[in-house]
Amino acid sequence: MAANLRAGLIGLGMMGRNHARVLRELDGVDLIAVADAVGDPHGAAGALPVLRNVEELIAAGLDLAVVAVPTGLHEEVGLALAEAGVHALVEKPIAHSVAAGERLVDAFESRGLVGAVGHIERFNPALQSLRARIEAGELGQVYQIATRRQGPFPARIADVGVVKDLGTHDIDLTAWLAQSPFVSVSARTTTQSGRPHEDMVAAVGSLENGIMTSHLVNWLSPMKERVTVVTGERGAFVADTLTADLTFHENGSTVTEWDAVAAFRGVAEGNVTRFAIPKPEPLRLEHEAFRDAILGGGRDAATSIVTMREGLNTLRMAEAMIASADSQQTVVLQPA
């Protein structure tokens, strides 16, 4: 019987404590070491000593590590893990800049290590069901993917703005649902809260397969909203990723006897179906995919890890959004 994988965790903040809980519950994995330079505010370490840095974490003898430190430290910590031959799951975004992300991708790929990025929305049951239904043709031709991700400012974020922190969720899930990359984006941002980075963005984009996209993301709303709407020729799917609910609004059929408009195709309200779907915890699914990738278990594209290269492409799009807002121009993305 194979020994369990030896796991480490660096970063014991809000996400770190959830990673610690899931790692302790995950079959085939033992959490053996944790680290955070500023301590353990949520008691995530349990009986484990809180180490000071990634070097001490590596010295514990790891097979894999989860990186939940602030974004600005992803490159430094990730490169140290790669150099030590440790597989890593890095919280999103992959890094603070595209150049840093490229160095991480090269470090892990050149050593044959599994490098994953924590774009957890891909593992939300509502979105996994939605992708399968789109792929099965239930919507027919897809016209648009629109996302809304709004809520109050999280005090945990200080080193990046809303585009790289929250917006990367929507960039990644949109391209993943459509199975097509972004080719252009036009965005507008604002900074209303006195912090150095943008706290609201509105963006429209185009995917390579012709689907158009719309994204509203902010830290300025007292109302928390996490909604993805996919509209196509047969209706619209609405996924609420806060509750993992998926609803289908079907196009109704109408018949007109007025000859002048009978040739025009319209849309009418039809039946509304709320699907009953299993709702496993997305973070657990993400960790299971990471574990299986290390062990060489085959998974389909819908349930496999988000690779560092995919995370890098998402970061490129985020930087294109910011550049578009700064220039007030549409940005066309170059092929990766």
From TrEMBL:
Keywords noted in UniProt: NAD
**Pfam families tied to this protein:** GFO_IDH_MocA (PF01408), GFO_IDH_MocA_C3 (PF22725)
Q: What is this protein called?
A: Dehydrogenase
**Domain GFO/IDH/MocA-like oxidoreductase residue range list:** 128-237
List residues of the Gfo/Idh/MocA-like oxidoreductase N-terminal domain.
6-119
